[in-house]
Amino acid sequence: MQVSSGICFKQPEEDGIDYTISWANEDTLFVAFKQSPQKSSLVPHAVRQIGQFYKDAPNVIQIVPSYQSVLVQFDLLDSDLRKIEADLISFLQALESTSSNNELLGRQHIIPVYYSPDVAAGLDVLLKEKNLSLNELINYHCRQFYDVYALGFLPGFAYLGFVPDQIAMPRHQQFKGSVPQGSVAIADQQTAIYPFESPGGWNVIGRTPIKVYQSQKSLLGVGDTVQFKAIDKQEYLQLGGEL
Amino acid sequence: MTPIFRVTQCASLASFQDMGRRSCMQDGVAVGGVMDLHAHAWANRLLSKTINAATIEVTFGMFALEVLSDVRISLTGADLAASIDEKPIMPWQSYFLSKGSVLKFERPRSGVRAYIGIAAQIDLQHFYQSLSAVIKEEPLSLDAEKVLKQGQVISGKALSSSNHSNYVSVPNQFIPDYNSPLVLDLLSGYQIDDFDPTWLQRFLSRDFEILPSSNRMAYLLRPRESQDEAQTHNIEELASEGIAFGAVQIPPSGEPVILLNERQTIGGYPKAGCISRLSASDLAQRFAPSRVSFRLADFGQAQKRYREFLSFFSN
User: What is the ipTM of this complex?
Assistant: First the structure.
């Protein structure tokens, strides 16, 4: 470990994961992994583990896990900075030696979705462009578990990855009016649920009656997994969905 | 709870703010908090309150409060031509307001954000352990009563009068001059290696102008001289990552964006570093078309300075 001009830098281990640790500002530490989560499953594992490591620490003000990085803000008055650096480095070193232990730490969610032009205005256009039937789209979207890689844009808006190429669609160049609350949408290889009605540019394919953000809490967190389940109109309405 | 104020004019922006929400970014929720921490901290110190007590942040003026019960207040930050019952008052002091009087703010004379400390426990619900409003989330109605509106009544429990401060006014050496040219301290370690080495040299040598679209979320800058082109670059967008307070984001256009209290929680543009916490306080009192530039700061000194600042205002 070198500490120069306040920047603490970790050289990669021979076989381990390649990362750097630096201070972004006076009280905020940034851990960045070189490989993307698509390239190395060790990266999301490490991101989750760091999240757990700081979860209940009283001197942590914010922790922001994302695709291949974690940002941690500390209470400067309640923190020994040299100790924070040293503890994190030993934690990451220990993690590398146990990284084959790839157990799931996050929660699993099944999200019911009503896939229909009734609740997804541009769905017919998308199906035509991708040369798919509605059933094919549903099968592709529902057949796998998605990882939650990051939250942002709106309270509770979780970026889920990654959808199969057959249903990947670039986002609209410009926001297309207002997207209703609960809309399930695709942008490139990512999919997401709109927690609130909002301007948005993603391709809407359906809607869930589930509220993903309420009472100061996001239903989904980084490291959780999500699977979508198709429901019909009747079930959607029974679960409180609106048309 | 006793009614303390009624908002009788609110033609610009006024909101309750403290040090910001905690453990919220992981939910995709913005932090909020005071834009000028220095002025806010003194507003609380003048009333013997801790640095995390909420103050009212008044931006640009055009704001008035009718006093519904006797209360002591403090006033710091911008000079927004404030008055009590039409009698002019100066910031960086505490004042006693008696029932029936009117505290009024006109227009900016120096700086743009004034802070009102209140010697009372304000009756508001905590959201992520904070009383800070986030203006951009207002349409979501998560936390609407913290953005003040005409007619709104502010209630609270007065603090005992024995709770008096050592300070009646802020000593002169701690009162900033918001009209002086501003040089922002840049902590550059983080991600600067992504840029060409000459890029930083050039970035540090230029003058920027604050754009009018700047707000509590971000300050937008552009090179000051029109013949001075923006420093474009071809660095690839990164996978979205958590954004630290004060991050200086450089989009491909080369026009810097300084991300502040209501910043988005994640983003993917390359960053030249972060401005220091206390530089952000100075920046918050400037507005378009003020001039700013950057200088490299020593990280250890900036960290020490911020820690001492927090320590002073927390005791």
Answer: 0.94
